[in-house]
Amino acid sequence: MMERKRVIVSERIAEEGLQLLRSELDVDYRDGISRSELLDIIDQYDALIVRSVTQVNEELVKKATRLKVVGRAGNGIDNIDVDACTRYGIIVANTPDSNTISAAEQTISLLLSSVRNTAWANDVLKAGTWDRKPFRGTELYGKTVGIVGLGRIGSMVATRLKAFNMNVIAYDPYIADERFERFGAEKKNTLEELAQEADIITVHTPRNEETMHLINEDILAVAKNGVGLVNCARGGIIKESAIIEGLESGKISSVGLDVFEKEPATGNPLFNYSRVVCTPHLGADTYEAQKRVGENIAEQVILALKGGIVPNVVNLPSVLSEELDYLRPYITLAEKMGNIYYQVEKTPISRVEITYSGPITINETEMLTIGFLKGLLEPVLWEKVKYVNARLMADERGIKIYERKEEQSPKRYKNLLNIKIFNQDREMELSGTISRARNPLLVEINGYETEADLEGYVLMMQNEDRPGVIGTLTTALGEAGVNIAAMKVARKTKGETAIMILNVDNKIEEDTLKALTRIDGLIGEPKLLHF
């Protein structure tokens, strides 16, 4: 019986997530564990689940000798050194979709509360004063909202604000034009252009070096007088000192903040302004979101520990879950094609050229390249090659990777992967696709056309294209107790060299392989591959 993998959960997650983890893993739930204690015991665990407090830095990663995956129960990864995790082959996964609805709704809540002075009026009324004059607000109808960041949450905010009959403009240099059109947002090419037109600005970007203080004094200087601001993303994207300056001058009329530059935020000077509505980072704090976060991160950690392809891996290319379902068999195909080389050749590789052809090219194909590199390097490296570090390991070994896409497949197959692997003497060329049953097929090797299944044990050899060679070979295998499940033969020109590719039911012993080399008509040594 296999030993169950172990996971430590260092911060609070929903009970539903814990139950899911316990169904597959040994769970150590240590909400609030001290840093020193975590460092002392982290080498005992295969997975770590955190929220925003636990610092997963290089110090921790070095001690985590068993760690395979870090799960972030939530979206932001400010507390995780992703580069260090990648170097050590550790997957970092988060749950970007789990709190999308809650974060979008919190944005709308703060926006409405701030423009109508709801929180301020509530405080005054409860203090015993009935006075409506100070609290006159503004309508959203017909106003222009400027959305900075049109990703998952930003696009959901756009959809909801369209229902208020607002004009939606957006700035996001990393999003295709089609996405702006899809969500009814008018694209602005610069942040300044957005600021000049927006009555309200709401930000929905990650916090990094590029976005820290993205909305600052310079941007607010070109904004409309009386502009409203909302930040439910990350503290510091809107510069807090610039907000105070704008409130004092009257440039800013309303502010809704769920996040702050320093958290926990107590005694923040923004709390002194009646026109600022503040909440303590509640964007994801709904029962529904926390349940989804807990369940989703549990599912991803379990999948990662089983060796599966995880949908929301931070240190791998971003792929939508529905896109991943489509690409998954092609990733497996690419990995198995990579696995062929060092089972056949022993010469170091200098470069690889990969061509993706067919409708598959409209998708993100980087995961296929990574899958190929993982399969390529696994047979020859002592250290464990994983999806997250395969490209890094290839770079360290001086393997240059060239990729291109062609809309039309050059052969009869709908989608095709063509891979040329170059060493100092020669090249190996492979082409592959997937079958109707979505299984990996090798359809060409070094110019020989075939349709061989890349499953289990596969025997490859060259032979003279003449009568009797195949019969002699199959007889020899039968006498050795080897059952042939499938067999493909291919040639380029009649009467010259051909190849045979056989799927066999079991491993062929070394003495049997040596005996095959003595068969008249076989060329070179047969190669037994295992997938």
TrEMBL record:
Pathway this chain belongs to: Amino-acid biosynthesis; L-serine biosynthesis; L-serine from 3-phospho-D-glycerate: step 1/3
Reaction(s) catalysed by this chain's protein: (2R)-3-phosphoglycerate + NAD(+) = 3-phosphooxypyruvate + NADH + H(+); (R)-2-hydroxyglutarate + NAD(+) = 2-oxoglutarate + NADH + H(+)
Entry keywords, A to Z: Amino-acid biosynthesis, NAD, Oxidoreductase, Serine biosynthesis
Annotated ranges, domain ACT: 458-531
Record Gene3D superfamilies: 3.30.70.260, D-3-phosphoglycerate dehydrogenase, domain 3, NAD(P)-binding Rossmann-like Domain
Enzyme nomenclature, EC number: 1.1.1.95
One BP annotation, GO: L-serine biosynthetic process
NCBIfam families, per the entry: PGDH (TIGR01327)
Protein name as annotated: D-3-phosphoglycerate dehydrogenase
